[in-house]
Amino acid sequence: MKPFPSFAGILGGICLLASCQGLASPEPVTVTFSLCDSDAGLTRAGSEDSEVRRWALLLFHDGRFADYGLSSSSEPITRTLQTGSYTACAIANFPEASFHPESFRVREDLTELPVDLADNVSGAPVMFGESRIVLPGHETGSLPITVTRLVCKALIRKISVDFTDPTLASLAFRLKSIFLTNCCGVNRYGSDFSPAEVPAAKSSWYNPMGLSGNGFLAIQDIDAVITPSTPYLVPHSFLYYPNPTGADQDTHAETWSPRRTRMVLEATIGNRVCYYPITLPAIRRNQTCLVEEVIIRRAGSSDPEQEIPDAVEIVFSTSVEPWEQQYHDKDAY
Question: What is the pTM assigned to this prediction?
Answer without folding.
Answer: 0.84
